[in-house]
Design a protein that fits this description.
By secondary structure, the protein is of the alpha+beta class. The protein is built from 2 helices and 8 strands. Strands 1-2-8-7-6-5-4-3 form an 8-stranded antiparallel beta sheet, with helices on one face.
Amino acid sequence: MLLAAAPAEAQHLQGSRGHYSVSITVPVTAAKAWRVLTRYEAMAGLMPDIQQAKVLRRNGADLELAHTYQAPYTFGLPIRATLRLQERAPHSISYTLIRGERIRSLSGSWSITPIPGGVTVEHRIAVEPDLPGWLRPTYDALSEANLRESMRVLKRLMLTP
């Protein structure tokens, strides 16, 4: 099914110091956006910071997901984390950190909102890295760049037939 053109590409990043909201509009159905977002293991190597991803457990809409992140914001180090996810198909996913290396706290959500001609995909994240204070401004700048690039990649994946 073809959709009318969505509004011109707009990527909005708001927030600072580990608390962000970033959104994009994509001219696809909510079902297509959902399929892309929930291909957790397939995202390894496609997303700019996810090197490995493995679903450890699934019980209906609740799952545990292991990630290994490696990106400029990790200063090149592989960082492992296990997340608890709760899916509310086909509109939202929330997640919290169960355990992680060099991460004090991590939580967030994804939402898919139908709009005329497509969907708005929003990612909200709150992360507190375990690193020296003097590195925080560099970490934040690199993390923001990664969020922007991640949304560009997701949009490209969602537009792929």
